[in-house]
Amino acid sequence: MSKPNLALVGATGAVGTVMIDIINSRENIWGEIRLIASPRSAGKQIMVHGQPSTVVALSEEAFDGIDIAMFDVPDEVSEVWAPIAAAKGVVCVDNSAAFRMNPEVPLVVPEVNPFAAKSRPLGIIANPNCTTLTMMAAIGALHRKWKLTELVVSSYQAVSGAGAPGIERLQQEIAAVAKNAEAGLATNNVSATLAESGVIQSDSPWPVPIALNVIPLAGSMKADGHSSEELKVRNESRKILGIKDLKVAATCVRVPVQVSHSLAVHATFANPLSVDEVRAELEKQPTVVVMDDPANGVFPTPAHVVGQDPTFVGRIRQTEDFPNSIDLFVVGDNLRKGAALNTYEIAQLVAEELA
């Protein structure tokens, strides 16, 4: 087969923009690369591998001649258009939550379960949530070695997880707090500081300020007091790792960081393991970077990780109270490996299969 033709749906969005950067930074394995977006973005020109590409409006005809389509759009758009594209013979790699838990749709992380991408009865492959993806390359490697049985996860999620409005809101609040810092309002009452500056709380994605704050709820509230993000961590981890009875407890928190999610992970395994063994196993993984010398200030942080592809792991430690458990701090760029990069890597798997 000649080089497959690729479409990017949502090419002008936040994740789509990162996707184009990823495409441009890698070998061109594609025939045509077609950029698709909403009608208001149609006609816009974007450089792809050194050539201007004109964005076309999302329509059934936009998928003519396409072999693989990556969807970086809201759930409701994917729900409608991925099946339409799949019906035309297009393999759809979807970054939304629309199909992740559908039993007929594989949920794929290439480092963990690449084989799953070959079984796609609906013609759709799902990309996991960015929070789950942040830890999956590392946890998948440890599971292969020691058999994971339990996960306790606390996430510290960047505002970009809420899209462009999240980034804009944090920037507005930081500017307001900085402007009013001398008056003492910033340290005593952020809400009052924002009101003083004319920043209206009802315009925010969150019910309370995010500047100088942490919000112990990421996603929307669901049954039993859990958030949608917490349920995604549980359900997606089980599906990706193939452990239906995996015990998972997650607390997802929004923090005033623009890009990169961080996770504190307590992982328990069926077999004993040591810190040195875990560190050695993680250092073998081609997409994991170990930064684990805290005594000398070496550990992963969002500021360091942003814009990079790998998963970064540090603070590897163990307590005698839990001999089969390990504690890790894991950080990943939520717009790259947490979204665009993993989607692209799935598309690469399919391209290799079609070749």
Describe the structure.
Its EC number is 1.2.1.11. Homodimer. There is one protein chain. The protein is of the alpha/beta class and 355 residues long. It has three domains: 6-127 and 340-354, 3-Layer(aba) Sandwich (Rossmann fold), CATH 3.40.50; 132-158 and 216-332, 2-Layer Sandwich (Dihydrodipicolinate Reductase, domain 2); 165-203, no CATH class. Helices cover 33% and strands 21% of the residues. The protein has helices at residues 14-25, 75-87, 130-146, 164-180, 185-188, 190-196, 228-241, 275-283, 302-305, 336-354, and strands at 6-9, 33-37, 45-48, 51-54, 56-57, 68-71, 91-94, 124-126, 148-157, 247-254, 261-269, 288-290, 311-317, 325-332. It has a six-stranded parallel sheet, with helices on both faces. It is globular. The mean pLDDT is 95.
